[in-house]
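From the methods appendix. Each design record in this collection lists the tokenized structure first, followed by the designed amino acid sequence. Records were kept in a plain field format so they could be parsed without special tools. The example shown here is representative of the layout used throughout.

RECORD:
FOLD TOKENS (109 positions):
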């Protein structure tokens, strides 16, 4: 499944252009612009499956750093500060990674 099966290419392009500069990534505005915030829990779960590159059932810090690349191969990697802030916002149980339920909550926050 491609991410464009769930999200529109136009919305993805718009969301990525809003965070091209280093340290400009804001997960709330990104999720909103890309259209993920308005998707069903099942659709959000499918996007989680795409982001979970190693299929471990979690999005770990390394996968988060490459988060934008899942939307476009030409997108930048997140900075260390952006990655840490994203992880701390999503990791509600403190295990150092984001599970599917945590991701769904983060998207809807």
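DESIGN:
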């Amino acid at each position: 499944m491609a991410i464009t099966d769930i999200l529109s290419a136009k919305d993805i392009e718009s969301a990525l252009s809003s965070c091209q500069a280093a340290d400009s990534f804001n997960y709330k505005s990104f999720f909103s612009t890309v259209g993920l915030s308005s998707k069903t829990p099942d659709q959000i779960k499918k996007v989680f499956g795409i982001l979970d590159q190693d299929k471990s059932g979690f999005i770990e810090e390394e996968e988060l750093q490459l988060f934008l690349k899942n939307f476009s191969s030409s997108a930048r990697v997140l900075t260390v500060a952006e990655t840490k802030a994203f992880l701390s916002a999503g990791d509600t149980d403190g295990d150092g990674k984001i599970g599917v339920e945590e991701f769904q909550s983060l998207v809807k926050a």
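APPENDIX NOTE: The radius of gyration is 12 Å.
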